[in-house]
């Protein structure tokens, strides 16, 4: 059984820990700071005047970057701590956006709102137990001609250990994983906006997650009636050091060490309605 409340509480603790390392984020945004990466911006295209739903928006930093580019942004996240922080950050940074606390799949199937773009990124669908319901909800809220853009870490990354051996999670695992959400922001350092080692709390609340292959995700979107327009793979990981054996690259990216045969670390999908 999916324990949604435990996952929410685990993300609440993780959100507090993650933001503890990032200093004055409102001042960062007021000063023109930006946390978005070229891959998602390329796939999203020109956002001026468009309505955009940002699914699993976490604490709103990416949402505000999208709003600054001219989109009318609605961010949705399960974590009440993340939504509280996002609303305060939006007000303090002077970048308007709307933030909704909700289970994202339930919201997709009940909201009356419709959007030109739906966006999600980086550690998203693994927290959802039902890909078919997720994809059907996205198709439901997209306007005709609208597009869903998803940029995600490649599911292969969870199979590699720090020595870059295939010794961790089974790519085809079906049972849920149950672990507290870790402090991956601290582990990734400046690539995820760390400016100081903030005070953190021990997160002992287990959250449930699932392993989905690229085929599972793309098939769910296509089965919901969406047209797959783009499927790209990338040899680097943006921001998060998803495998301990990766080394820093340019532009806040993590890359394979020199001499290692590369496999994808991220993928991007554009699906149209």
Characterise the protein shown here.
This protein is of the alpha/beta class and 273 residues long. The chain has a single domain, classed as Rossmann fold (3-Layer(aba) Sandwich). 30% of the residues lie in helices and 23% in strands. The chain contains 9 helices and 12 strands. It has helices spanning 4-20, 25-30, 38-44, 61-68, 80-93, 104-108, 131-141, 184-188, 214-223, and strands spanning 51-55, 72-77, 98-101, 115-121, 142-153, 177-179, 207-209, 227-234, 236-238, 247-248, 253-255, 266-272. The strands form 3 sheets. It has a 7-stranded mixed beta sheet, sandwiched between helices. Helix 7 (131-141) links the parallel strand 4 (115-121) and strand 5 (142-153). Helix 7 packs across helix 9 (214-223). It is globular and about 45 Å long. The relative contact order is 0.18. The model has no long low-confidence stretch (mean pLDDT 97).
């Amino acid at each position: 059984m999916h324990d949604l409340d435990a996952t929410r509480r685990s993300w609440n603790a993780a959100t507090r820990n993650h933001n503890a390392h990032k200093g004055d984020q409102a001042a960062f945004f007021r000063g023109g700071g930006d946390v978005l990466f070229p891959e998602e911006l390329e796939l999203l295209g020109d956002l001026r005047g468009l309505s955009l739903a940002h699914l699993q928006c976490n604490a709103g930093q990416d949402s505000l970057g999208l709003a600054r580019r001219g989109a009318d942004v609605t961010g949705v996240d399960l974590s009440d701590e993340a939504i509280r922080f996002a609303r305060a950050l939006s007000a303090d940074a002077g970048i308007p956006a709307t933030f909704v606390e909700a289970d994202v799949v339930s919201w997709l199937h009940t909201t009356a709102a419709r959007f030109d773009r739906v966006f999600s990124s980086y550690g998203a669908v693994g927290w959802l137990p039902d890909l078919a319901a997720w994809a059907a909800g996205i198709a439901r809220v997209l306007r005709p001609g609208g597009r869903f853009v998803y940029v995600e870490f490649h599911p292969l990354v969870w199979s590699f250990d720090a020595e870059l051996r295939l010794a961790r999670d089974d790519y085809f695992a079906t049972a849920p994983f149950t672990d507290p959400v870790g402090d991956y922001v601290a582990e990734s350092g400046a690539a995820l906006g760390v400016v100081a080692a903030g005070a953190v709390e021990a997160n002992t609340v287990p959250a449930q997650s699932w392993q989905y292959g690229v085929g599972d995700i793309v098939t769910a979107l296509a089965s919901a009636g969406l047209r797959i327009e783009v499927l790209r793979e990338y040899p680097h990981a943006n921001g998060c050091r998803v495998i301990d054996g990766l080394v820093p690259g340019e532009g806040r990216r993590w890359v394979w060490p020199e001499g290692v045969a590369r496999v994808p670390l991220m993928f991007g999908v554009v699906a149209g309605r």
